[in-house]
Design brief:
By secondary structure, this protein is mostly beta strands. The strands form 7 sheets. It has a 22-stranded antiparallel barrel. A hairpin with a 4-residue loop joins strand 34 and strand 35.
Length: 931
């Protein structure tokens, strides 16, 4: 009997536990953010209660709240905060196990009686209200996209998301173009600290390593406030990643891509080992640690034994293998975990990893300039690894976040070039070029409420490391007379009897450390009867770079003419054989010298003060001053040749007048700047075989000062919709531009300041649901968006040289930019279509010099298409992407006839093509699943 009773009790216990577990499994969550209706500021400590119960929570330091274990069905929530009207939101439906997102806006009470009024709204109404507030309440002219909008889009990574932001164009997944201005005049921040560039010579960041489901919001600011970085004129891209997820999740994605001119075609390149597929060079291409120093080689006294040993230590595996180019591969996984204690404290973790491998072919690439008429076939093996790890702990009215990102890129390029030079010689040129790039960034940040009310203290400390390693870039050129083109007895001869930067091995290594920190404080108060928020901040950034470069080669020194001819005719796989090296016919040599390596550092200290004031219901002014002190040094082993300190006062004023509940009129003035990159200031020089010339810096470059003015009218016809028209003007003092330095016998690329330049234009933006055409579901679920920028720019060239162009457009400035697209969803948002169109007007790539005019990039029509379908109870998603469907040629040309369009070759009375190629159409299929 006792046994039977024990069994019954055990069975009842198991049954009760099962019911409890099933009941809990059928609960969901409600989460969101509470903000001030006028300013968009998040509110700390708002009480959020379930109506009719004592269950509730308070918003944290980010203004966020989460109500857990909510039963399936509809609920009503009450929101209350001192000094604000209370709000009651009904019809909030919970469906386990998903999270229902509800963002709420509260209105400041203007009197004691109003604070006792309870505003009532439905879930649908409040969702619309919060989106309206988010759109209208930006302190400056900006365009953005929130995590809620990202959830509804089929975008896989940040690069895809940015393509949807009005006025922005992303090229090669890393270069940002805003209002037609090139990457130099745009900047990007990740989690409130400046993103270091992954390129040594320009601003660029691989946006595609941040998965879209980990992005909290993306904003492109087109005007400045004192709390923003000062080094931009086009736009400042702000990316904020999540730290504490709403719920636990695990997701993975697999994708494969096809390129019309690469995939399954013959692919030429050196042998790849497993490490290359993981993004790492195995060390066999690096310069030996005991390799003779530059001084030892310059002395000319290197013993023969050491000469041979040094030559034998150089990489010799130049064999080219023909394989089949595999499809593009993409893999991604993300993990999110959140743990909430009974007292409301939360710990969250987000981890993701991405992998991409591509093997691409560019055939029949035209390269023509001056005395060169070449045709290239290029083969690129590329691997990209990315990782992100964010951790955060929220306790009371405080939050500490620890955010990390890593990116590793490995490119192995092989180029085969044929053509003529000087009209009298045939050329066969080979280039082996490996580039390894890495970026690591770690950020520790804290958010705190100070005292009562909405006083906020935010601090950030970050460290970044950037690495660029280029081991054994080998260039080899063979020539023979053009008159012997059809004579097989006349063999091509390798150019190995003398060395220059165009036919040596380049070993270069760049390492840069960036240390940054800031502290920001904001407090609300009343000033002249106006609701005011004062924000103060201090910060510093220190960059320290070391760049080492050596140009090394084997110089054929034998005096035996017949032997010399025989050796020079050997193929590249045999010409540096061990037996020839041991025979003593080669001498190790180095060109260049201490000028090619450099060290550089910069130290930026800044402080700012700003006021955000609301006068009545309709007028808002955000104004203040940012002060930056900047010092930059560039030096080599001989001297410090750049040591410049600048103190800049950067005021800004942003005015907003609400014409109606749906319309704003904005006006702004702000001063920003653009500083030369370390590479542009250095005396380092290297041969770029694609530019057909040496790239050399200019230590006399000055920073650019830009005065900006904007005027914009914007109207929001409905939630998530927009129409705006803007006018802008920018005046540049000492604009930094690249140009062809063609004074001497060789034509190099360098940089200079133009005394004055200006650009002005109009910008039209529209995002509209098509339900005004017809009330059918098709038009209700279709949104069209369009952005058009029309820009005029003018530069006055320096007068110290007799430049061909006295005035011209700015380098990199397009006269127009068009972005347009359609989005359509069907089957209850399970099926999504997206069409994107982009076109950038012709723009100068390099300014002309004394002998040669400017080179222009020809416009291209770019059309992308995407369709996605959610499967497996919407946990899985299949996506089909088609990129660059039109596959028009990328063309850079000299506009010799001055008709402002590309006419083809000079022989037809037209222009000269500097470079021309097709990248191919891209089609990819991917599958993503979230547990």
């Amino acid at each position: 009997m006792d046994l039977q009773n024990s069994f019954k009790r055990a069975a009842l216990t198991v049954f009760a536990l099962t019911i409890s577990i099933l009941s809990y499994a059928q609960t969901g969550k409600i989460s969101g953010t509470v903000t001030d209706k006028k300013t968009g500021e998040t509110l700390i400590g708002v009480t959020v209660k379930i109506k009719g119960t004592t269950k509730g929570v308070s918003t944290d330091v980010d203004g966020k709240y989460v109500l857990q274990a909510m039963a399936n069905g509809k609920h009503t929530l009450e929101f209350s905060y001192v000094g604000y009207q209370s709000k009651e939101v009904s019809d909030i439906e919970v469906k386990s196990p998903s999270v229902t997102n509800l963002n709420v806006v509260l209105t400041e009470a203007s009197g004691q009686n109003l604070s006792e009024v309870v505003v009532k709204a439905s879930f649908k109404q409040e969702s619309v209200n919060s989106l309206y507030a988010q759109q209208k309440n930006s302190a400056l002219i900006s365009d953005g996209i929130s995590s809620d909008q990202i959830k509804k889009s089929p975008d896989r990574n940040t690069s895809d998301v940015l393509k949807r932001v009005s006025g922005a164009t992303i090229q090669d997944n890393k270069f940002v173009i805003v209002r037609g201005l090139s990457d130099r005049y745009n900047t990007a921040t990740l989690d409130n600290s400046t993103l270091p560039s992954t390129e040594a010579n320009k601003k660029a960041f691989s946006f595609d390593i941040v998965p879209s489901n980990l992005v909290d919001k993306i904003t492109i600011n087109k005007t400045a406030t004192p709390d923003l970085p000062a080094d931009f004129a086009g736009g400042a891209v702000q990316i904020v990643t999540k730290d504490i997820p709403d719920q636990n999740f695990f997701s993975f994605g697999v994708g494969y891509g096809y390129n019309s001119q690469s995939t399954f075609k013959d692919f030429l390149g050196t042998k790849k080992n497993a490490l290359a597929y993981l993004g790492y060079e195995d060390g066999s291409k690096q310069l030996a640690e005991n390799f003779p120093t530059t001084a030892a080689l310059a002395s000319g006294n290197l013993p023969n034994s050491k000469n041979i040993a040094a030559l034998k230590s150089l990489p010799t595996d130049n064999a080219i293998k023909t394989t089949t180019a595999l499809p593009i591969q993409n893999y991604q996984f993300s993990l999110g975990r959140v743990k909430q204690a009974e007292n409301g404290n939360k710990f969250g973790a987000l981890i993701s990893a991405t992998y991409r491998n591509a093997q691409t072919i560019n055939e029949d690439v035209e390269r023509n300039f001056y005395v060169y008429n070449y045709n290239d076939n290029q083969y690129k093996f590329s691997t990209n690894l990315g990782a992100l790890a964010n951790f955060a702990y929220s306790f009371g009215k405080n939050k500490i976040s620890f955010k990390n990102i890593y990116n590793k890129n490995y490119d192995d390029n092989y180029t085969v070039r044929t053509g003529t030079k000087d009209g009298n010689s045939l050329n066969q040129f080979y280039a082996y070029d490996i580039m390894q790039k890495s970026l690591f960034k770690t950020t520790l940040e804290g958010d705190h409420q100070i005292g009562e009310g909405n006083n906020k203290l935010k601090w950030t400390a970050s460290y970044s490391n950037i690495g660029n390693n280029q081991p054994n870039q080998l260039k080899m050129n063979y020539t023979k007379p053009l008159s012997a083109q059809n004579d097989p007895s006349v063999l091509y001869q390798a150019n190995i009897t003398s060395l220059g930067k165009d036919n040596t091995r380049l070993f270069s290594d760049l390492n840069e450390d960036v240390y940054a920190g800031d502290v920001n404080f904001s407090t609300p108060f009343k000033l002249f009867d106006a609701s005011t928020t004062m924000k103060l901040g201090l910060g510093s950034q220190y960059r320290d770079r070391t760049f080492d470069a050596r140009f090394i080669g084997a110089e054929l020194t034998t005096n035996d003419a017949d032997l010399q001819t025989k050796i020079r005719a050997l193929p590249i796989t045999e010409i540096f054989s061990q037996s020839l090296i041991e025979s003593g016919v080669y001498k190790i040599a180095e060109v260049g010298g201490p000028l090619d390596s450099y060290k550089a550092n910069s130290f930026t200290n800044y402080g700012y003060a700003m006021l955000d004031q609301k006068f009545g219901e309709n007028f808002r002014a955000v104004y203040g001053l940012r002060i930056e002190n900047y010092n930059v040094k560039v030096l080599n082993s001989i001297q410090t040749y750049v040591d410049d300190t600048q103190l800049d006062f950067l005021p800004s004023l942003n005015l907003t007048y609400s014409l109606t509940k749906k319309a704003n009129l904005r006006a702004s003035y702000y001063r920003t700047l653009a500083r030369p990159e370390f590479r542009e200031l250095s005396l380092s020089s290297y041969y770029d075989y694609e530019q057909l010339g040496n790239i050399t810096g200019n230590p006399d470059l000055k920073r650019s000062i830009i005065d900006n003015a904007d005027l914009r009218y914007e109207i929001y016809p409905d939630a998530g919709q927009l129409f705006s028209v803007s006018a802008f003007y920018k005046h540049f003092t000492n604009a930094i531009e690249s140009y062809r330095y063609d004074v001497g016998s060789t034509t190099d690329v360098s940089f200079f300041n133009t005394p004055k330049a200006y650009t002005y234009g109009l910008e039209l933006e529209a995002r509209k649901n098509l339900n005004f055409i017809n009330e059918t579901d098709f038009f209700k679920n279709t949104t069209a968006y369009f952005n058009l920028s029309l820009i005029k720019s003018k530069v006055t060239n320096p007068t110290d040289q007799d430049f061909i162009d006295k005035t011209r457009p700015m380098v990199g400035q397009s006269p127009y930019v068009i972005n347009a697209g359609f989005q359509h969803s069907a089957l209850n948002n399970k099926l999504n279509f997206n069409i994107l169109y982009n076109k950038i007007g012709r723009r100068i790539v390099q300014a002309g010099g004394i002998r040669f005019p400017s080179t222009w990039e020809n416009p291209r029509d770019v059309l992308d298409f995407q369709v996605s379908y959610k499967v497996l109870k919407t946990k899985g998603e299949i996506k089909l992407n088609a990129g660059d469907i039109l596959n028009q040629r990328n063309i850079v040309y000299f506009d010799y006839n001055g008709d402002k369009k590309y006419n083809g070759s000079v022989g037809n009375g037209g222009d000269e093509t500097f470079s021309s190629y097709k990248s191919g159409r891209n089609i990819s299929l991917s599958f993503n699943y979230t547990f």
